[in-house]
Amino acid sequence: MNPYWLDWLNLLGRWLHLISGIAWIGASFYFVWLDNHLLQPKNPDDSDKGIAGEVWSVHGGGFYHAQKYRVAPQLLPEPLHWFKWEAYTTWLSGFFMLCLVYYVGAGTYLIDPAVAALSPMEAITIGLGTLVLGWLFYDGLCRSPLGRNDRQLGLAVAMLAAAAAWGLCHVFSGRGAFIHYGAMLGTLMVANVFFVIIPGQRELIKAKLAGREPDPAPGLKARQRSLHNTYFTLPVIFTMMSNHYAMVFNHPYNWVLLIAISIAGAAIRVYFVARHKGHASPVPIVLGVVLLAGVAFAISPASAPQAVASVNTADQFAQVVHIVQNRCASCHAEKVTQAGFVAAPKGVMLDTPERIASHATQIYQQVSSRAMPLGNLTGMTDQERQFIVAWGIAGGPSK
């Protein structure tokens, strides 16, 4: 397909994914907040009707009164609003983006020969297998005897996620590994909605329509999966934005960083869920912040590479220009020559010495983190990379 139209599909697909994700996460966070702020009904008649809790709120110039039933009302109201299409649309648009970017462009974005020499078909098969097997293992854990103990189940799910992070980072490029880790967690979330939460709600409605007492077990399972979903949310959002931060996904221990940041995100969410209930311990959020700070300090760059002379003369700058124009300007130029690109990414053009000098800081950051050249398609050598890093540390342009 023409790269121009691929870019439009990318733009529209990403836009839809973002919109539906905001709607899904927003609704999910709201209902967690709502459930944790319910108070005993003040009207005794409400308790007799089966109402378990209520909450008053004000928003947008109006007052709202929400009530939750212990199981279900005596008569089902019409219309009854469901919250499912936000989840389904988020996953479908995300899967579309996964295919468009990482499977159509597997050789560029998904495969890193320095990590594993995979063919595009092998890489795509592993990627899809991660989504399917991740759900099967997770669902099996939830349905096992561990499912009756939330703490033991949570530890088992965390170990599953850690194993996936390690495995993906040892077969894919850092960028591809992080996005597949997030896609796996996102798949668990939407599968929870499709296979557990919505069926549990349908069973509740069927029981009411049949005139029999609803079984609370499906509702309890749905609540457990909903709680898992809210803890998965922040790690998933991190992986969605992680492709902008090569300092993390291209690090030699990227899988350790991915696990640490996921734990930090989940811990921060634990704090806010507990805070809704009014008895939050500061331990989870302190743990999350300490983990994030620890990651930031652990991967901070060294002051300068050893055994490389300072690069600050005109002749040495000319060598930098030569490297950049050979290794980077096929994509970053006024007239792009690299197949699959129709314009310079982010508008960054490096086809003249003046443009290279004006983007010195970006060049240093992208080359030192090994984010660029993308997939090292142009074959930048370690010596060339080291030369540019030394130039950046020495202050960049010399003219």
TrEMBL record:
Membrane-traversing stretches: 12-33, 91-111, 123-141, 153-173, 179-198, 253-272, 284-304
Ranges for domain Urate oxidase N-terminal: 4-299
Organism domain of life: Bacteria
Keywords of this entry: Membrane, Transmembrane, Transmembrane helix
InterPro entries given in the database record: Cyt_c-like_dom_sf, Urate_ox_N
GO molecular function terms attached to this record: electron transfer activity; heme binding
Name by which UniProt lists this protein: Membrane protein related to purine degradation
Organism per entry: Sulfuriferula multivorans
